[in-house]
Amino acid sequence: MQWKTADYAGWGRVHKAHGELARPERAADLARIMEDTPAPALGMRRSYNDSLLNDGGRAIDMTRMDKILSFDAATGVVEVEAGVQLGELLRLFAPKGWLPAVVPGTGFPTVGGAIAHDIHGKNHHALGSFGQHVTSVTLLQPGGKRVTASPGRNKALFRATMGGIGQTGVILSAKLQMISTPGTGMRVKETRVGDFDEFLDLLDNSRFDYNVGWIDGTAKGSNLGRGILEEAELTTGVEARKGPSLPVPIDLPGFALSAPTVRLFNAAYWRKVPARGRTHVMPIASHVFPLDKLHDWNRLYGKRGFHQFQCVVPVDAAPVLKDIVGRIAHSGLCSPLAVIKRMGPGRAGMLSFPMEGYTLAIDFPARDKAVRLIHELEAMTIEAGGRLYLGKDALATGDTIKAMYPEWQDWAAEAARADPDGVLITDMVRRLELRG
């Protein structure tokens, strides 16, 4: 297998790496790499931080390992290689009456990446996290050892792999239990929300399987936390057509997301939904993958990139989350991208992010002032008994993350058994000192 030197980065483009990459196309190629020159794996590089980077070392690009290995049309169980993209699964199987149980806001992430971060979606309150729908996973560990884990077999290894940021072996393939769908459409109800308290009340009382809220991160006073709630359910009657995404051809200058510009945009965006609300039907992908409407949208933040702060806090810590939203609004630093969701208790792994409560995700252009603000928000999250998302965090210390994830030592022990020489350790694992 040929190794090629390359520069690469996560989606946030703040952390970067330089090293050798290999791109195997067949299982036999990957097996030889893991036997002779084992290294951590990466996919479409949609994690926002340094979780996929191995600066100065080697990494395995899994994007050519993208075969559908089997599919049972009666049960909806599909077996795929790790490099298959989630959007491709939806495109292929929704017309057949099946779709991935859990998807994030973009269709580009791979199945391997979805497992590594135990991702969640707009239906977490109803169906939990991605790893809860993985019936088995096959790993190639350093030295070439091939191991299969499931909820009933090698259970500790399975739980260390779901959300385990790639430290228990390179994912070769996985079996997924998909969910049935009556068609390729979604009926979406949009509601204009006046403030934070109203938002939480609507989220708590929603009876839809999918819900997500956009928050105006610049609104203050009586308008604090205003936004738009989207509730949706699967339906029939829509032809799933993939429209072209708009490109962002250049890195925008810093003033493009200045505070006055963001305030004006957010005010106009809030009013796009009538005060009485509205309901419409759209293709599934158009609703669940809103980030894919703008290609290379990370370039909006310029060459310096961006940070995303994403936390989850328990239900009874809602006042702290409201304070977090207020701190952001008064900072003048937020971008137009700010999302709030209601989460259920579902999580599959020792380092899985979800807990029952509310999750807030918001982007900030990478600036020194934003770094200081995010550290303040991290402290507030700890105070609330919440967590930061390892798929997004690029700034936290090891002490902060360890305080949020009480099973991290059990996870580290499983990672050490799978990878005793530490060849799978990535930049984020080093930054957080998760493995010694």
TrEMBL record:
InterPro entries: ALO_C (IPR007173), FAD-bd_PCMH (IPR016166), FAD-bd_PCMH-like_sf (IPR036318), FAD-bd_PCMH_sub2 (IPR016169), FAD_lactone_oxidase-like (IPR010031), Oxid_FAD_bind_N (IPR006094), Vanillyl_alc_oxidase_C-sub2 (IPR016171). The keyword Hydrolase does not apply. It holds the Pfam family FAD_binding_4. Transmembrane segments: none annotated. Residues 13-181 form the FAD-binding PCMH-type domain. One of its GO terms (molecular function) is FAD binding. Keywords: FAD, Flavoprotein, Oxidoreductase. Gene3D superfamilies: 3.30.465.10, Vanillyl-alcohol Oxidase, Chain A, domain 4. It comes from the Bacteria. One of its GO terms (cellular component) is membrane. PANTHER family: D-ARABINONO-1,4-LACTONE OXIDASE, L-GULONOLACTONE OXIDASE. This is FAD-binding oxidoreductase. The lineage of its organism: Bacteria, Pseudomonadati, Pseudomonadota, Alphaproteobacteria, Rhodobacterales.
